[in-house]
Amino acid sequence: xxxxxxxxxxxxxxxxxxxxxxxxxxxxxxxxxxxxxxxxxxxxxxxxxxxxxxxxxxxxxxxxxxxxxxxxxxxxxxxxxxxxxxxxxxxxxxxxxxxxxxxxxxxxxxxxxxxxxxxxxxxxxxxxxxxxxxxxxxxxxxxxxxxxxxxxxxxxxxxxxxxxxxxxxxxxxxxxxxxxxxxxxxxxxxxxxxxxx
Length: 197
Known about the structure:
Layout: H1 2-32, H2 34-57, H3 63-68, H4 79-93, H5 96-120, E1 124-126, E2 129-130, H6 131-149, H7 157-173, H8 179-196
Antiparallel strand pairs: 1-2
Helix pairs in contact: 1-2, 1-4, 1-5, 2-4, 4-5, 4-8, 5-6, 5-7, 5-8, 6-7, 7-8
């Protein structure tokens, strides 16, 4: 149990390194424009796809990646690939603040739910999801929403509440669909829709 907890902690920490991509995107965006920034993210995605081809199709182990891959991902595409793809879609389609909030909710909401849920959670609400994990995720998602969006004049408190609720609900309910793809896209779509209304 202890080993699984720290392994999961390490796996979630990978999301933090992926956040560096968002920072890189913002830097390239400010210097060269959106097209170059998105192309840089696509290049990173292509590198990950090549690594996944080596791991899955050629059946060659990549030691660094193997540590972070969950048992259910052994024969499936690694979750980070979906997260990078979702980042590209969110940043290309949604308002930057909406995209940023959706991606941060995916990263920190999921991380808090997994860590707190595995460490302290006993009462299940849905399959392997715990009440304490779900509540912690909702709290973190709300916190992110207020930090990223509260001073954005076009967004009201209902948008923040809705995005946090959608992110938490999708993370809690999805099992076979990769949450790294589903959470940011659903959350960002709903946030953008409310922004447009």
